[in-house]
Each structure stands twice: as structure tokens, then as C-alpha cells.
Amino acid sequence: MNAATPEGEMAWMTPELVSWYQGENARRLQAQIEYQHQVAAQQREENRVVRRAEQCSLSCKENGLRCQNRCDGDAEC
Description:
Layout: H1 6-9, H2 15-70
């Protein structure tokens, strides 16, 4: 509709329909908020996993370099 206000849009509705409409809007808004929370939680978990993998990789690389430095020139190593 082309009403200037939300009240104008709902002027034709019965009180029961207004109640349903407001409840449905509230339900949809709550569902959207919950979805956004889920997406944010999933993103935080993915970031945590990536950081942990990066830390592990750096640790392995560091240990490998220490091993190479200890074995410098030793053919047995």
C-alpha cells in the first residue's frame, strides 16, 4: 500500500488481523535475529579453527627448523 504510516497501512484491518500481523512481524524479526546469531557463532568457530590450524602449522615449521639447525652438516641426521 502507499500509506504514509504503518497505522495507515493497517487502517482497513480488523483488530484480529492487526494482532496477527503484529505477531507475525515480531516472529519473523525474532527468527532473523536468531539466524544472525547463529551465523555469527559459526563464523567465530570457523575463525577459531583457522587460527588453531595456523598456530599448529607455525609450530611444526619452527620444530622442523630447530631440527635442521641441530643436524647442520650431520649426514646421519
